[in-house]
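**User:** Here is a favour to ask of a fellow structure person. Please take any protein you like and set down a full record of it. No explanation is needed for now; the record alone will do.

**Assistant:**
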Amino acid sequence: MPGEARQSVKRYPLAFALTVSLFAIWGGAHRIFGIVSPQFERFFTLSYLQSSIILLSLNVSYLLIALPVGLFLRRFGCKLGLISGLLFFALGALVLYPAVLRHQVLFHLVSVVVTGIGWAFLEVGANTLIVRMGSPATAIRRLNFAQCFYPVGLIVANLFAPEFTLPPHNAEFGQFVNVIVRPYVVGGLGALLFTLIMESVEFPAVANQRPPRGSRAIDDLKLLRQNTAFRNGLAAFVIYSAAVACLWSSTIPYARHVLGVPPAAGWVIFSMMTWCLLGAGRIVGTVLMGRIDPIRLLAVFAAFATALCAIPAFDHSVVGLVCLLGVSFFVSILFPTLFARTIKDLGPQATIGAGVLVAGSGLGGVIGIIAQRTMAGFPGFVHVSLALAGLGFGLVLRYAVSQNTAARDRAETQPDSNAKLTAQPDC
């Protein structure tokens, strides 16, 4: 990578800080959506099928748009992708006002879909830009650092958002508009303001990098398909996403059964603990990557996640609950490490590769949720779900070990190659 790109973090600190702050904004937005969605279901008196369709539309739009977002970033650059994501996010928030004013659920559906598109732009664009905004040697550690701010956004939103986004139980129309819709409108306007700030800040050249004239996206996709390292990383990423979906959808039912706490209180307590452990794991992982090779650390964390999943999968006790919560600490670095490891050496194919990875993440999440809900009616389904999660983390461990072995083999053969070159006589 050119010297300018290697010094991007130091030469463009404000651009780096704005990009990192998007992770906290995005985490907070995810949590606020989770808080407010049930209120809209109650306001529109949606049936279970209707609410499921709206939730599915968010996931499907997020899944289907990821690859087109990667193509967009390839054509127009990561900075314009981030600005587009913020604009979609703002539009999704502002559309809620006519949804409530006209009492039209169709507007609410449009808002959810547009918000999902905005999130896809932000996830693909921000992750890719952090990886490319500096030296490839530190790309994995840099993305882990940025991802530390995602759980911070979740935690802050969970602590303070209910104060201004939850209307009274029997809220009338005016109360609903004042308590929920207007804060959303303010949030949308805030996203527009953040967009203007980001547009006015100078970013490194890599943020606006575009393909050379004559190159085609279809050729990049073919190169990705032929790239064995990318295919292996994508497979590990999909497996990880399915495993973590099984893990987190089972944590709260397991905790409620062990301790007997009410569902609402159990959700609040154990979700906060999970997010705190996730953030702590990423902070510790980022620090350790200054001394330990990131892929070796990935293997260590994946090994602990696999082992800790095995205990609650076969036991139902407080010890099992402690181990289950501990898994969130060790899965913390898996997403950023797998993501950065897979795309950091792709060069011109990095943005499309990132879009494919995010789509794969969505696919893995859907697979995990479907598997978990299919088993929900059977006795002991939580244990089976946790066993599947442990199996998935075990496969990530296998991937990390194979990557470490390949790196060691390359290191051993490199000196031999150099020695042969030196031993050749002068011509």
